[in-house]
Amino acid sequence: MSRTLEVTSTNGARLHVEVHGPEDAPPVVLSHGWTCSTAFWAAQIEELARDHRVIAYDQRGHGLSPYSPVCSTDALADDLEAVLAATLAPGERALIVGHSMGGMTIMSASGRPRFREHAAAALLCSTGSGRLTAEARVVPLRAGRVRTWLTGRILGSSLPLGPVTPLAKKILKYATMGPGSAPDLVDACARIVHACPRAARHAWGGVLDRLDLDHGVRQLTVPTAVLHGTADRLTPSSHARMLVAELPNCAGFTELFGVGHMSPVEAPEAVNGRIRELVTLYVTGSIPVRLEEGA
């Protein structure tokens, strides 16, 4: 069972939202990353929707969500809250999963009342809270000002990506995926990324270049698990280690050997398994999850 709806967020931003699976099943909310779309979660939707209510949405300017000139971390939080309000009953709690910019969405929303009302737990996949251009390893140079500057120019580029060619797939694989990624998975990721409108890619790339969400990590008081691939060049292991150390209620760390930044696509069985574990523990299980005071 699947349905789609359009949700209106702040500044009139319209969001494409999909709901898959039985309406009475435990809910899982999926928030994708920069230049991606709901298509990025195909493996999660296919497997989990058999016995979960899987809610996925296109970030503003991505997929079927029209471009909005307002792009900021606050807008990310606004949009997640709008999706939660439109798809969950009052007080209903879900596992909220974020990949890359989707994880940053969770960090940005962590102190919001609606997030705290609906989040039973969270899973942060291949993400970080700041210092993205300084720590990313997509440019094959030593760490320093030159590499940071070049990385920032790449993130904020407004140049068109062009068609999905063998060279384009080779570049994307090097930058975002593990060396052992299957060709069909590389092709799928390339088609998703190249479909992202240039204006959205440029605007959100600038937001990532200036990202500072350390305060959001400290406010993320729900049980929060971290998942990371050892071959991740965009958000290398230093980000995952920082999240594990700073989260007030870390619910575990999963490290996937040889997996790059696109962990839900590259290692769907591991990601789906972790999602199922967290749903059992914190959404349908017997562990009580209380609302924080003042939420």
From TrEMBL:
Key word Hydrolase present? yes
Q: Which residues form the AB hydrolase-1 domain?
A: 28-272
Q: Which InterPro entries match?
A: AB_hydrolase_1, AB_hydrolase_fold, AB_hydrolase_sf
Key words, A-Z: Hydrolase
Q: Does the keyword Hydrolase apply?
A: yes
**Source species, domain of life:** Bacteria
What is any Pfam family matched here? Abhydrolase_6
- Give this protein's Gene Ontology molecular function annotations: hydrolase activity
Record protein name field? Alpha/beta hydrolase
Name its species. Answer: Streptomyces bauhiniae
The taxonomy runs: Bacteria, Bacillati, Actinomycetota, Actinomycetes, Kitasatosporales
